[in-house]
Amino acid sequence: MVQLGFAGLGVMGARMAGHLLRAGHRLRVWNRTPAKADGLIESGALWCDSPESLAESSDIVFLCVSRSEDVSELVGRMAQASRGGTMFIDHSTIEPHVAESLHGDIRARQLAFLDCPVTGGEKGAIDGTLTIFCGGEKEHFDTALPFLECYGKKVRHVGPPGSGQKMKMANQIAVAISVLAMSEALVYAQKAGLSVADTVDLVGSGAGGSWSFANYGPKVLSRDWTPGFAVSLQQKDLSYALASARDSGACLPGAALTHQLFAALEASGRGGDATPALFEILEQLSGGRD
Fold first, then answer.
1. How far apart are CA 284 and CA 116, in angstroms?
2. Is 219 a catalytic residue?
3. Looking at the domain 167-285, which fold is it?
4. Is residue 227 scored above 90 in pLDDT?
5. At what angle do helices 96-108 and 163-191 cross, to 10 degrees?
6. pLDDT at 249 exceeding the cut of 80
7. pLDDT of amino acid 73
């Protein structure tokens, strides 16, 4: 039976790891904050005291951490401890060029690496309905697919190393701009004397509807900025996307503007808020709450 390992048990990682356990797989886990592993250990996962211990005892290691530098550090440490043939599956959102570099480093050690960022948010992780973009060698994807399907509703190999992260950049561009579009529509409705609740319902049900309207519209109505996905993480992803766009020659004026507006939220100490809090920045620019 394949021994799985999972490093990074935050909002997304803990849910994905839970699906692997419920599917009957053997799972070892590690996290910088050990307490976040308690629920998984109660459900049958085994704790490892270090990333190196996790890697040396696992055939496939999943990662879900925050930033490029975190992934580079962890993969570097775990690769040195890994036995031959170990596969690393990275669900983090990182810079495409970093994913490409890691793949080359890992391959030189006779190990395997897939960049497999996810989309669908916390709800998708809980429900096991994530969309997963996979970059790397097709034979490695075929090996990983049965495990990824434990929490992915749509899992697709999108190209060579780095392609998963490039697809995630496209996703994050669309998501960020859709949050801005929703926020602008709702600020306009408020200033025009319309019911914001009616606008969420009616516009969200028509051609102007989007994932943001469906999932974030209710948050705007209740002014619930508890993060599923925080502004600081959105900014990290947009900065990666804009850098990748510069490298490829893509013109992204909407993403650049959205990045600046989110920067205003961060500057006001609200980097930990949920991304639909962008509504309040536009509200302030429009003269404040009516």
1. 38
2. no
3. N-(1-d-carboxylethyl)-l-norvaline Dehydrogenase; domain 2 (1.10.1040)
4. no
5. 160
6. yes
7. 97
Which pTM does this prediction carry? 0.94
What type of residue sits at position 187?
V
- Mapping DSSP to helix (H, G, I), strand (E, B) and coil, where does residue 15 land? helix
Q: Which of 216, 130, 117 lies closest to 169 in space, CA to CA?
A: 117
Q: Which two tokens stand for residue 86?
A: 């170990």
pLDDT score at 131: 99
Let me know: does 16 contact 151? Beta carbons within 8 Å.
yes
Nearest to 45 by CA among 65, 16, 77: 16
Q: Are 136 and 160 in contact (CB under 8 A)?
A: yes
Residue tagged active-site, from 166, 168, 219, 236? 168
The letter for the amino acid at 154 is K
Cβ–Cβ under 8 Å, residues 235 and 266: yes
Q: What is the pLDDT of residue 228?
A: 79
The CATH 1.10.1040.10 portion of the chain extends over 167-285
